[in-house]
Task: inverse folding
């Protein structure tokens, strides 16, 4: 007689005495299954987790938009730590049937299809009398379903509208980073003295020193107020005016050389060099300043043909102009030459052609017999600033003489006020590097505030330097001109669309420019230079990072002629010819 009761037999347990992992004796039914490794960093709860963690991680990465980045972050940290992160995919089913040949012919819903069939049947049975009401009803139903009819083809209206709309800022982090070259070649024997992050420079502060006029040279003409009435409906073509304006380096200025001989001050600079230093934290493009220390005197100089001789365009936009294509009209180098040409000729065209309105104490110190009749309207004011800290008792003055420039004069009652003249230029609103700017010919008169705000955003460094230069020179007005191309594809013809006058201090405040921070940067740099030994040094902005570096340069290196071969005495118009 057999026993009908069921029996339960315990399975044989194979214990691994050597540690964690498969036992030495593996059952026959598990011998061909691959072993999935694991990481010591895995959480304990995941030992028995039979869900698909890979799919969950992938969904998280897709929702956060970080699936394309390989760097370590809080979304993919488990993926980098887990050696056997893909263990679930080893046993997952993979569908290998090719379905790429299938496509959806009609994406309308079944309701819309039935309505279309009924409408077609009704039109056939009732003739043309009921065709118009049925088609109108069908269109209304399709519109309620979110569709519209274009050329007898139903198209998703919402989807089509989204496709035509540009998504600004989408996946900007995946764009390749631009690698710029330094403004000067760093020699192998240069000695790196210090590195200063822009974040540290932006925290410096110093009281705005009072300016003292030392000497003035040159002469200026009156501003032609007829250009204040220029607008987009009454534009004026930009003219080429052959004039000479000198922009000599600090160390080769004959007036400053005389001041150095007479021991007038401790530090010497020009408004172009000083304004760049004060607005350094806003810059993006690389630049450099040459520091010369001689007999305890500090000279902040520039290299001829460097960044100081050209005007930048849209330096601060998120997607600046292309820098590696020199053949296009809208490349970085072509736009710099175009902007320099526009600034030179606009500043001369808006002046009255009569004889000089205001003559300073002494004639132009750079003029010669050959160029005296072709001098541009320019006044050189040499002004002194004391950089000694007021909180230091019995502190010796640290005098700095700066050569500043003014371009014209404006009659205000019985008094002549000094003016600096600059020009903003528009190249092509639809080209790369335009920075989302509005078309000036359509928007300058009606949306002047929006145009100015866009320029302040795209050219924050350039406009800040212009405001600082006007303040250093003691100018009462900063006159800005708006110059655009006659046609977007031609960079040889331009038109003046309007002008606007600002008070330099109000303009700086409108740009959120801290003058105390600018003078704090100058104070820190001067104190650092005074502690250096006699020699030559280079302060340069890192081409790809917001860092200021200071190098000691051996005496045999020729910085002036390293990358450029041109006359450093005068800046002629033909240098900026298109």
Result:
């Amino acid at each position: 007689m057999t026993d009908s009761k069921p029996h339960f037999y315990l399975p044989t347990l194979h214990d691994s005495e050597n540690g964690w992992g498969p036992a030495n004796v593996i059952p026959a039914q598990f011998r061909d299954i691959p072993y999935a490794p694991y990481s010591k960093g895995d959480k304990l709860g995941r030992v028995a987790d039979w869900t698909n963690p890979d799919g969950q991680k992938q969904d998280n990465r897709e929702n956060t938009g970080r699936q394309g980045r390989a760097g370590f972050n809080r979304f993919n940290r488990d993926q980098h730590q887990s050696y056997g992160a893909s263990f679930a995919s080893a046993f997952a089913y993979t569908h290998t049937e090719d379905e790429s040949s299938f496509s959806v012919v009609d994406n309308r819903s079944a309701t819309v299809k039935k309505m279309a069939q009924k409408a077609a049947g009704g039109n056939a049975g009732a003739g043309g009398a009921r065709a118009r009401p049925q088609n109108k009803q069908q269109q209304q139903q399709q519109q309620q379903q979110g569709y519209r009819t274009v050329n007898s083809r139903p198209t998703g209206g919402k989807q089509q509208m989204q496709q035509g709309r540009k998504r600004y800022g989408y996946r900007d982090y995946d764009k390749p980073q631009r690698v710029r070259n330094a403004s000067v070649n760093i020699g192998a024997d240069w000695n790196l003295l210090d590195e200063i992050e822009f974040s540290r420079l932006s925290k410096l502060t110093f009281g705005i020193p009072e300016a003292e006029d030392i000497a003035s040279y040159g002469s200026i003409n009156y501003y032609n107020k007829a250009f204040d009435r220029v607008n987009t409906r009454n534009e004026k073509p930009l003219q080429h005016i052959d004039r000479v304006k000198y922009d000599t380096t600090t160390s080769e200025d004959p007036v400053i050389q005389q001041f150095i001989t007479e021991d007038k001050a401790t530090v010497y600079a020009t408004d172009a060099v000083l304004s760049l230093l004060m607005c350094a934290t806003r810059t993006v493009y690389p630049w450099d300043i040459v520091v010369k220390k001689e007999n305890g005197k500090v000279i902040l100089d520039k290299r001829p043909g460097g960044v100081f001789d050209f005007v930048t365009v849209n330096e601060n936009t998120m997607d600046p102009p292309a820098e590696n294509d020199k053949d296009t009209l809208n490349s970085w180098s072509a736009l710099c030459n175009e902007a320099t040409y526009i600034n030179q000729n606009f500043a001369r065209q808006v002046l009255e052609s009569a004889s000089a309105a205001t003559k300073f104490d002494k004639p132009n110190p750079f003029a010669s017999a050959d160029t005296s009749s072709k001098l541009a309207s320019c006044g050189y004011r040499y002004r002194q600033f004391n950089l000694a800290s007021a909180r230091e008792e019995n502190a010796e003055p640290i005098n700095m003489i700066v050569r500043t420039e003014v371009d014209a004069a404006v009659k205000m009652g019985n008094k002549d006020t000094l003016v600096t003249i600059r020009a903003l230029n528009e190249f092509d609103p639809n080209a790369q590097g335009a920075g989302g700017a509005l078309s000036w010919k359509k928007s300058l008169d009606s949306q002047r505030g929006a145009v100015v705000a866009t320029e302040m955003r795209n050219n924050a460094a350039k406009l800040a330097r212009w405001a600082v230069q006007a303040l250093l020179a003691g100018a009462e007005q900063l006159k800005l001109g708006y110059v655009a191309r006659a046609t977007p594809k031609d960079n040889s013809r331009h038109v003046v669309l309007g002008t606007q006058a600002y008070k330099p201090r109000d303009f700086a405040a409108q740009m959120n420019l801290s003058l105390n921070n600018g003078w704090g940067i100058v104070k820190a740099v001067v104190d650092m230079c005074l502690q250096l030994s006699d020699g030559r040094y280079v302060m340069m902005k890192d081409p790809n990072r917001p860092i200021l570096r200071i190098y000691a340069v051996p005496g045999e290196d020729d910085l002036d002629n390293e990358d450029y071969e041109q006359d450093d005495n005068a800046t002629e118009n033909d240098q900026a010819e298109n």
Q: What stands out?
A: The chain is about 25% helix and 20% strand.
